[in-house]
Amino acid sequence: MFDHTKLEWTPEELSCSISAERIEITTKPGTDLWQKTFGSASADNAPVLQMSSDEQYFKFETKVTFDTRELYDQCGIVMHMNENTWLKASVERENDEFAHFGSVATNHGYSDWACTELAASVKEVWYRMTRRKDDFLLEYSMDGKHYAVLRMCHMWDCDKEVSFGFYACSPRESSFTAVFTEMNYEVLSESDVVL
Fold this sequence. Notes:
This protein is mainly beta. It is 0% helix and 57% strand. It has strands at 8-10, 16-18, 22-26, 33-35, 42-44, 48-53, 57-66, 74-82, 85-93, 98-107, 110-111, 114-119, 124-132, 135-141, 147-154, 162-169, 177-187. Strands 1, 6, 8, 9, 10, 11, 12 and 16 form an eight-stranded antiparallel sheet that branches.
């Protein structure tokens, strides 16, 4: 069961609305999550709203609705341990025609980005994160029923307690509101976590 009272901000609290059924996060300009790869850019200032769990097998799900406005505006789910270790899945605005739909895994201070193009008209996505010890599976759905694999990866330094939840950011001089609903957190058994 998802318990919104366990959520905490990292690195700083934003003005937002939080309830058991709905979370609204309005971004601040100049915020992002990215580390080093393909250039020297390094950013770890996107506020994330997370809860922690030491359960070795669990799944976390949510729906996010958004109306991004400028290049690189993005929102989705995140597992953020520190600036060198984190995982995210999101839709990132490119222009009025398309967005980038993908995920980033950051290990040992280096990010990667796996993405594909998505029509800019898409304004809502469902996400699911499943943990199997220090391995993670990210899935997405366009209807909340049928899920497809977005990424499967190993995360270093995530063998015990992890923090996970929601994020939204605007790397440029922009701001928008992301709305998260249909939140669910469920502890699983090892046999439940299969691909």
